[in-house]
Amino acid sequence: MTLPLWGLVCLSILALIHVSCDSFLLKLSVGNAWTAGPRDTAVSRGALAGRARRAFTNFLETAPVFIALALVAELAGLHSALITGGIYTYLAGRAFYLPAYLTGVPYLRTAVWLIATSGLAAMLAGVLLA
Would you say the pTM of this structure is higher than 0.85? Predict the structure, then answer.
């Protein structure tokens, strides 16, 4: 399997980690009765559950860009250092983003986000310059 396809598999794993973390921290925050019920009433998430949700939302904002660029690279048969480096950089950044966000360390989340986003920019440059 090619690197762009492996990147998509890794992205899927990251998505499942985000969903699981969001779900488990919500359950810890509001209790099993609400999460197992119809969820008709709004609840207030705890701080950690709120961070997990915001990290997941941020993941969902950048994942489609990665998917599009990985598919373009794969379907067009594009292989370059920019695309390869971008895939690794984005996935590594996204792997560290959730823990960075959950810790709440000032500026750490932003630094990791910039790393991941630079991976997308490298992939885009690799596609456009091919």
Answer: yes
